[in-house]
């Protein structure tokens, strides 16, 4: 039951070229940066990545993108990464843009064994009708577009069928975890990390605080250990970034 491995390098050693990765994080919050660095150092390429966004130019998934290691991205947000936009528009990167809530539910559905679901999000747009550019040619024309999706009327309202997402590996970052793989996330880091943990066939968690089984009470657990196969201890001083720092005058007590 002890799922702790000695290093991030050891944890990602079987991630091969062409693997599909579900990667947690929201903006720069809760990003499994040490696991991403280990994947980068391993040399794995032609990766297909599912993540809310693709980091920034020099951090998180951005380091894989910069080296041309990502062949396809499924995400809901492109901003903050100029290289992402450049590769997409120049035809170097295939991108499936998905509404954020739909992306979250596709990951959750994959984790619980639901093959597809109907949602009203995207009805009447190219999300449902097809034609969203997935890949461009170098001359700027579209070489691959999204297909038309099945729709259905329920109680007088139209819904679009969205397929679940599963991945070869899930890479996540938790604030606290135990040796059995039970995980606790803090604040915004809880947005996509639990979903990516569920969607991965093999899920690897880097944790800031590693504790013994029993120290996390059942009601505290956000992701049960059954979804997690490997745990890497980071320590409380692991690197974090603030996406946008804003300040205001402090009010007097």
**Secondary-structure element sequence?**
HEHEHEHEHEHEEEEEEHEE
Helix content: 10-25%
| General form | globular
Number of strands: 13
Report on this model:
This protein has two domains: 1-115 and 166-183 and 202-236, Glutaconate Coenzyme A-transferase, CATH 3.40.1080; 117-163, no CATH class. Helices cover 20% and strands 28% of the residues. It has seven helices and 13 strands. The longest helix has 13 residues, at 100-112.
Ordered list of secondary-structure elements with their pairings:
Layout: H1 8-11, E1 20-23, H2 33-42, E2 47-50, H3 62-66, E3 70-75, H4 82-89, E4 94-97, H5 100-112, E5 116-119, H6 126-129, E6 133-136, E7 142-145, E8 151-154, E9 157-163, E10 167-178, E11 183-184, H7 193-199, E12 200-211, E13 230-233
Parallel strand pairs: 1-2, 1-10, 2-3, 3-4, 10-12, 12-13
Antiparallel strand pairs: 5-9, 6-7, 8-9, 10-11
Helix pairs in contact: 5-7
Task: Summarize the entry for a quick read.
The protein has 253 residues and is α/β, with parallel strands linked by helices.
Overview features:
alpha/beta, Glutaconate Coenzyme A-transferase, 2 domains, eight-stranded mixed sheet, 7 helices, 13 strands
């Amino acid at each position: 039951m002890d799922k702790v491995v000695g290093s991030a390098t050891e944890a990602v050693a079987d991630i091969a070229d062409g693997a599909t990765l579900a990667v947690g994080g929201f903006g720069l919050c809760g990003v499994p940066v040490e696991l991403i660095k280990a994947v980068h150092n391993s040399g794995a390429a032609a990766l297909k990545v599912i993540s809310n966004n693709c980091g920034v130019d020099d951090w998180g998934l951005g380091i894989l993108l910069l080296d041309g290691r990502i062949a396809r991205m499924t995400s809901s947000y492109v901003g903050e990464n100029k290289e992402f936009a450049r590769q997409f528009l120049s035809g170097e990167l295939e991108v499936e843009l998905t509404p954020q809530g739909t992306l979250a539910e596709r990951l959750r559905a994959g984790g619980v064994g639901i093959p597809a679901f109907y949602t009203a999000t995207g009805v009447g747009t190219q999300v449902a009708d097809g034609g969203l550019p997935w890949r461009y040619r170098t001359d700027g024309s579209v070489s691959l577009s999204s297909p038309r999706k099945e729709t259905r009327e329920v109680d007088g309202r139209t819904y679009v069928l969205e397929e679940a997402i599963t991945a070869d590996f899930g890479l996540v970052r938790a604030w606290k975890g135990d040796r059995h793989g039970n995980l606790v996330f803090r604040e915004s880091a809880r947005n996509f990390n639990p979903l990516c943990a569920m969607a991965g066939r093999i899920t690897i968690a880097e944790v800031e605080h590693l504790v013994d089984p029993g120290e996390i009470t059942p009601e505290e657990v956000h992701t049960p250990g059954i979804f997690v196969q490997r745990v890497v201890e980071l320590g409380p001083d692991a690197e974090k970034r603030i996406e946008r720092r804003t300040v205001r005058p402090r009010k007097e007590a």
